[in-house]
Amino acid sequence: MKHDSIHHTLSTHFAAAVAEVAGTAPSEIDPAVRPANDPKFGDYQCNVAMALAKRLKSKPRDVAEQIVTAVTPRLGEMVSKLEIAGPGFINIHLADDFLKDYLGEIPAPPNSPPSQGGARGGSDPAFAPLSADFDRLGLPPVDAPERVVVEYSQPNIAKQMHVGHLRSTIIGDVFARVLAFEGHEVIRQNHIGDWGTQFGRVILAIWHIYVAEERGEPEYVEQKHTELEQAKKDSPDSVRSVLEGIRQQQEEDLRKDVIAEEQGDDKFEVFLQKVLDSGEARELLTLERIESAYRFVNLVEELARGFPSLVVPNPRREPPWRLSEVSRLLTPMLQKGGEKNKPERLAWEYARLISLTNCRELYERLGVLLTDDDIRGESAYEEDLPGIVNELRQKLATGVSGRVAKEPWAAVRDDDEAVCVFLWDENGEPQFKTKEGDQLPLIIQKSDGAFLYATTDLAAIRFRLKDLRFPSGVGAQRVIYVTDARQKLHFQMWMATARAAGWIDDAHRVEHVTFGSVMGTDRRPLKTREGGTIKLSALLDEAEQRALELLNSRDEGTEGRGDEVAADKEAIARAVGVAAVKYADLRNDRNSDYVFEWGKMISFQGNTAPYMMYAYARIRSIYRKAAERFGSPDVYAPEVAIRVTEPAERTLALRLARLREAIDAVATDLLPHTLCTYLYDLASDFMKFYETCPVLGAADEATRLSRMRLCDLTARSLKLGLGLLGIDVLERM
Ligand code: ARG
Fold first, then answer.
1. Which of 191, 370, 486 to mutate to test the pocket of ligand 1 (most atoms within 8 A of CB)?
2. How many CB atoms lie within 10 A of CB 529?
3. Strand blocks (E) in 403-491
């Protein structure tokens, strides 16, 4: 295939040669072809001879010799030299002509280049960057496209998104873009947390705000919260007395509510309908207020656990509620739905609406692909949950006695505590254990009938693999989940269960892609100076502000820098600020924690977004100058040949030829930082090239045209690569 990656082509040929030498099937032994670390050792290396020699019981250098003999006819003109070095490394030197041809085949950019803001997308943001006139640099889609789900972002309703959701959003978006670029059918899923026990608390929080407003005491929640915090410091008696005050108020308000409701005047419902219908009324019930009331409810219930005698009469005249349990008892009301519980449903709807509005704004600002169409949250699976539990009950009914030796095994146990799935490995050992060493089951339903987070995940995977419709057919072949590393055990457990149930089989690739935490400069999880969680909008505001300062300090004392001076510095700062935050996240191996340091991300020095964006704008400007001086030449005309005479020219050419490889690696290994490293190396190679290989002052026209073409290819590669990372380049900055 044209423009298959060089690495893949080499690997295929070496694999065939190795198989011939070893007498095995070509896919059996990995030929261990890697890019060389040092140009002294060629462009790539094949490092398999040492391991293979052991297997064949012969000398590594002899094996290397045999591999070289077997691979040479396969490689043809691709390489200029294969040399054996050290204990048996094979150094691979690509032929200059091969490199020239490889780059020479990259077509000119499409006539109508995508408008500014490719990363933000046009009418169909999902596929705008992949539309027909999108500059793919001639890279074709893969031969065997797959149906892929990428699940990312997954914020929780009625809570601010935190930095963990920011990481998932940024990283997941790269997978969605890269896999779509590679030609796969990608469906993005935003599995928002819009169901579950926390909703009782959300509803109660909203109710508190409402009754306080009704009484004309809008500060009530805040006040009581402060009083409780203080009482906690004072004594259990003070806690009790503040709680008693809250309890009394709650009892009174509930009674009024029920009387009104019975007279056919459900004021809470009217209030909720009003905030749902009108933008203005939402001032009363902002996300911040809901969140703060939510924290209040949490604190009340936590403290009230110490005082079980504090009870609130149940307005529906069933047994009274413990003050510590009111929210818990509200959740099933929501889950049962129905006319009688309408306010609960409306409160939930409202919390969802207001949270999603907030997410939408943030996604737009971040320039990620996610839209409302990608939302399929936990609540969407609500009706499937009983079926999930029943199906597991049937499929895993044989219990421990049915166990076949040497097979992983799962059994459902259903007692008055809960419905649990127990899992064993092929050695008969429990697959999961508690810290104390006891077997750890996956709970899928509690005794009160409530389903769990894991039950929903089981429903979601079954849906995605069996029912989700793609253009080419039904059911995903690959599902990628992007969440923080702390969810590892949860994912392992439900995935093992889904395998045991036969929902996931060997044909599916279901991957949990995790990431580390964002740390402050004190090496502890990132928090505000006051110790609170950082609001993402505030974080982006600061990034933009700092980007503006960076641009100002760069331009200090320089006036009239011609086309380098941009008309709209603030717009540039906006783009640079967001890009800096995204890039700083992506450039680190996602598996490790990283330190969030403004100085290191908003800087023109080092592997940063400002540096990369500036490199792009600079190359464009070099090209524009050359084009102005020499009259826009067609650098892609058939008579223009790429030359790789100077070492820096060759280094740049080789790097350019490895773009496909860099993109493929992200699609396979799901490690975005490798693409960042590639792009940074590309920019650095370009700068070295530009220092030693004059473009404007090239000795002759042919050299100049070749170098202009290399400039253009570099800029296009940077634009494509950064676009796949979700970062827009600017033509001038
Ligand atoms: N909403 C969850 C949270 O914020 C993340 C969801 C992850 N995805 C999943 N399929 N469980 O923790």
1. 191
2. 6
3. 409-414, 418-424, 442-446, 469-470, 473-474, 478-484
Quote the crossing angle between the two packed helices 326-336 and 342-366, to the nearest 10°.
90
SS3 state at 277: helix
Cα 384 to ligand 1 centre (Å): 18
Whole-Å CA distances, 652 to 494, 565, 713: 47, 28, 10
Mutate which of 152, 157, 487 for ligand 1? The one with the most ligand atoms within 8 Å of its CB, which is: 487
Q: What is the DSSP letter of 117?
A: -
Tokens of 498: 């889904």
Map out the domains of the chain as residue ranges: 6-94, 199-336, 378-515, 536-724
| Whole-number pLDDT of residue 113 | 45
CA of 376 to the centre of ligand 1 (A): 12
Element (H, E) at 89: strand 89-94
CA of 209 to the centre of ligand 1 (A): 28
Q: Report how far apart, in Å, the C-alpha atoms of 168 and of each of 320, 384, 673 are.
A: 43, 26, 14
Percent of the chain beyond pLDDT 90?
77
The Cα-based distances of 332 to 193, 345, 382 in angstroms read 17, 11, 12
pLDDT at 694 over 80: yes
3-class DSSP state of 451: strand
Q: Which helix (H) or strand (E) holds 186?
A: strand 185-189
What is the per-residue pLDDT for 332? 65
Question: Which protein residue's CA is at the shortest distance from atom 6 of ligand 1?
Answer: 154
Q: Residue 367, by phi and psi: left (phi above 0), alpha (psi -120 to 50) or beta?
A: left
Measuring CA to CA, how many Å separate 647 from each of 35, 79, 692? Answer: 17, 17, 9
Architecture of domain 6-94: 2-Layer Sandwich (3.30)
Residue bearing the CA closest to ligand 1, atom 5: 154
Fold exhibited by the domain 536-724:
Isoleucyl-tRNA Synthetase; Domain 1 (1.10.730)
Q: Return the axis-axis angle of helices 198-214 and 220-234, rounded to nearest 10°.
A: 120
Model pLDDT, residue 333 = 64
657 Cβ partners below 8 Å, 6+ apart? 6, 99, 102, 103
Q: Is the pLDDT of residue 119 over 50?
A: no
Q: Which residue pairs from 34-40 have beta carbons closer than 8 angstroms and sit at least 24 positions apart in sequence? A: 35/7, 35/658, 36/91, 36/92, 39/651
Residues with CB under 6 A from ligand 1: 151, 154, 156, 191, 193, 457, 481, 483
- SS3 (DSSP) at 482: strand
Residue 418 burial by Cβ neighbours in a 10 Å radius (0-12, 13-18, 19+): middle
Question: Other CB atoms closer than 10 Å to residue 426's CB: what's the count?
Answer: 12
pLDDT of residue 566 exceeding 60: no
Tokens 């290396």 — which residue? 45
Residue nearest to atom 10 of ligand 1 (CA): 457
Which residue out of 149, 150, 154, 484 has the highest number of ligand 1 atoms within 8 Å of its CB and is therefore the one to mutate? 154
Residue of 381, 483, 536 to test ligand 1 pocket, by largest number of atoms within 8 Å of CB? 483
Joined together, the tokens standing for residue 414 give: 């259903």
525: which residues sit within 8 A by CB, 6+ positions away?
517, 518, 519
Query: Which CATH code of 3.40.50.620, 3.90.1150.10, 3.20.20.70, 1.20.1250.20 fits the domain covering 378-515?
Result: 3.40.50.620
Amino acid identity of residue 500, one-letter, is: A
Alpha carbons 302 and 176: distance in angstroms, whole number: 41
Confirm whether pTM is higher than 0.85.
yes
Provide the 3-class DSSP secondary structure of residue 516.
Answer: coil
